[in-house]
Write a structure and sequence with these properties.
globular; about 35% helix; two-stranded antiparallel sheet; Arc Repressor Mutant, subunit A; alpha+beta
Length: about 110
């Protein structure tokens, strides 16, 4: 096993078990799709750092929850986010999916 400390996202040395983020992979996938509604799931997987299969599962869960709508456009998929859907946990259920996305990508260009 490698005992060399990993470099955390904030630049502070840490062990691999100490590297974590505030947002879930579901949020990361949603943010990638908000930035580019026609993004390939393979590219989402690379950006988030998870497998394409994991991204497919997350997208299906987001569709089932009514947060994403998938549309086939030629040979590609286009995703439409339901911005007004409430966040799922009781602590943040007074906020919408759009509020979360706006918080994270404020000031960045959003497609759609």
């Amino acid at each position: 096993m490698n005992s060399t400390p990993a470099r955390a996202l904030d630049g502070v040395s840490s062990t691999p078990s100490e590297v974590w983020t505030f947002l879930t992979n579901h949020a990361h996938v949603l943010i990638c799709i908000a930035k580019d509604p026609e993004i390939r799931l393979r590219d989402v997987a690379n950006l988030v750092g998870i497998t394409e299969r994991a991204v497919q599962k997350i997208v299906l869960e987001l569709q089932t929850a009514g947060i994403l709508i998938k549309q086939r456009v030629g040979r590609r998929n286009r995703y439409e986010i339901q911005w007004d859907r409430p966040l799922r946990h009781p602590i943040e259920s007074h906020r919408s999916v759009g509020d979360l996305i706006d918080l994270v990508i404020e000031g960045q260009q959003v497609s759609g």
